[in-house]
Write a structure and sequence with these properties.
Elements: H1 6-28, E1 35-36, E2 39-40, H2 49-54, H3 56-59, E3 73-75, E4 82-84, E5 87-92, E6 104-110, E7 114-120, E8 125-139, E9 145-151, E10 154-158, E11 164-168, E12 174-180, E13 191-192, H4 193-198, H5 202-209, E14 227-229, H6 236-239, E15 252-254, E16 261-263, E17 266-271, E18 283-289, E19 294-299, E20 305-311, E21 313-319, E22 325-331, E23 334-338, E24 343-348, E25 354-360, E26 368-369, H7 370-375, H8 379-386, H9 389-395
Antiparallel strand pairs: 1-2, 3-23, 4-5, 5-6, 6-12, 7-11, 7-13, 7-14, 8-9, 8-10, 8-11, 8-12, 10-15, 16-17, 17-18, 18-25, 19-24, 19-26, 20-23, 20-25, 21-22, 21-24
């Protein structure tokens, strides 16, 4: 059972959002100024006080910040939304978050029966279900089909080129996050079934399907498809077609049924091609950090990190080569990005659980813990670098603790 029902998150977040907005306005009215610890000065000129209050570590960065790094944060709230009679969609790609060269993300909502048109694309598609239920279908290159119902906390992965569909179920459909293994991906540039039919001469369609050419040439216009309304489908078994058999590796995965790694200040679930075998290009971790806790100081030796924040308030500090460092603030609906191999931490600065996804364009998840690295390095060598004495080196832990 999903321990984080969307409706409870929504109902609590409405009140929380109102409280956060009020607090942000209150802080901005004479309290939050670009001046602290004896540096900076007030800002009497034109400004967006609510925006400033939402990003306190940009307005008043820690004194440990230094140099120039690209922007590593973008919010879906700032993304253009495409709306149809079946739902809506919005995206964050390299066009919105320039540094995100490896991964792009799409946030999509389907009403009950709302259908993402049968389509395929060049990129692999990984998804996390945020709310509700959906029916997904796909057919692979050997004519083996796949049909499943996915619910909150479930994943799916469709390899590049594999045609598929998504349809909202139950009374209120679904919402989900799509992740693609190319930062330049564009949701407007997929291969759509109806679009192709509109660009094939009727006589060619007739030859292909063994039907009269007169049957064709009346394909609905594009604006009537893409995301459109259909009746809610019936029982799952009725949609399963044996045909040439089922795909050998399931395209869906029940992430919340996976036992998490439990820690005193949070928990982590890791999913990659070792346990979700179909997911060949995307790996991920679902991280939960309790108030006062922190995703430990670490970096990833195999890929850049693309983040999606599900709940709570967090602060991320990123360390780059050359002594450059920046700090960013996040809340639900935000996307973060950590370029390849840069050290970072993510701290819960709110009063509720911070929940976020880490995603990587890699078949396997890998991270290196700063604490573990130093604990497994000769003590004299560490002391010679940091000059922190026996108390520090004696407390280093050879076991990795993702949340501290």
């Amino acid at each position: 059972m999903n321990p984080f029902p969307r409706r409870s998150i929504l109902s609590s977040s409405v009140g929380a959002a109102g409280g956060l907005a009020a607090a942000a306005i209150a802080r901005a009215q004479g309290v939050l100024q670009p001046a602290h610890q004896g540096v900076g000065a007030s800002d009497p000129g034109p400004r967006d006080p609510v925006r400033d209050a939402e990003n306190p570590d940009i307005l008043n960065p820690p004194l440990t910040d230094q140099g120039t790094l690209p922007n590593l944060r973008f919010s879906f709230a700032d993304s253009h939304m495409r709306q149809t009679d079946g739902g809506w969609t919005r995206q964050i790609t390299q066009r919105e978050l320039g540094v995100s060269t490896t991964i792009a993300g799409v946030n999509m909502r389907l009403k009950a029966g709302g259908t993402r048109e049968l389509h395929w694309h060049k990129e692999g598609e990984w998804s996390y279900m945020l709310y509700g239920s959906a029916r997904i279908t796909a057919v692979d290159q050997n004519g083996r089909n796949f049909v499943d119902d996915v619910h909150e906390g479930d994943l799916w992965y469709f390899p590049s080129g594999v045609p598929h569909s998504i349809q909202g179920l139950n009374d209120d459909g679904c919402e989900f996050l799509l992740v693609f293994d190319d930062g330049s991906f564009n949701e407007e540039s997929t291969f759509l079934l109806n679009d192709w039919f509109r660009h094939i001469p009727p006589e060619v369609l007739g030859k292909n399907f063994g039907q009269p050419a007169s049957m064709f040439g009346n394909t609905p216009p594009e604006e009537r498809r893409y995301i459109f309304a259909l009746p809610v489908p019936g029982a799952l078994d009725a949609d399963r077609i044996e045909g040439n058999g089922r795909v050998p590796e399931s395209f869906s995965y029940r992430l919340l049924q996976q036992a998490p790694q439990k820690l005193p200040h949070g928990q982590v679930r890791i999913v990659d091609s070792t346990n979700f075998k179909a997911s060949k290009t995307i790996s991920a971790a679902l991280v939960e950090v309790e108030p006062g806790g922190m995703r430990e100081l670490h970096w990833h030796p195999n890929a850049a990190e693309w983040q999606y924040y599900l709940a709570g308030e967090g602060r991320m500090g990123v360390f780059a080569s050359g002594g450059n460092a920046r700090t960013f603030d996040f809340r639900a609906g935000d996307v973060g990005y950590v370029p390849f191999a840069m050290g970072h931490y993510i701290e819960n600065i709110g009063s509720s659980t911070l929940r976020f996804l880490e995603m990587f364009r890699s078949p396997t998840f890998a991270d290196i813990s700063l604490n573990q690295w130093l604990a497994l390095t000769p003590r004299e060598l560490v002391q010679g670098h940091l000059d922190l004495g026996d108390q520090f080196t004696g407390h280093l832990d050879q076991t990795k603790h993702p949340v501290v």
